[in-house]
From TrEMBL:
PANTHER family: 3-PHENYLPROPIONATE_CINNAMIC ACID DIOXYGENASE FERREDOXIN SUBUNIT, FERREDOXIN-RELATED. The keyword Iron-sulfur applies. InterPro entries: Rieske_2Fe-2S (IPR017941), Rieske_2Fe-2S_sf (IPR036922). One of its GO terms (molecular function) is 2 iron, 2 sulfur cluster binding. This is Rieske (2Fe-2S) domain-containing protein. Coiled coil: none annotated.
Amino acid sequence: MRVWHAVCPAEMLKRDGLAVLELATTAIAVFDIQGDLYAVENICTHDGGELAGGPLEDHVITCPRHSARFDLRTGQVLAPPACVPLRTFPARIHDGVVEVGID
């Protein structure tokens, strides 16, 4: 069963473009790109470095440590050294709050 976790007020994400949800077992980065929400595990699959804050171009995030690139829409690897895709999550705005769904 999917459980929705509150991340931040929708206005904050719209203003900043990025928010991170810290859970006991993982951190999830949520991006607002031209009004569309994308949520991915905030860990580079190459070496475990944090992705949030890395360069973002369109729907592509680049790991600030070793330049692995990922498509935020699908989690797919676009450039090495990573070879494992990112885990993605559904995201929504509910009653003015950004939420991430975890199954």
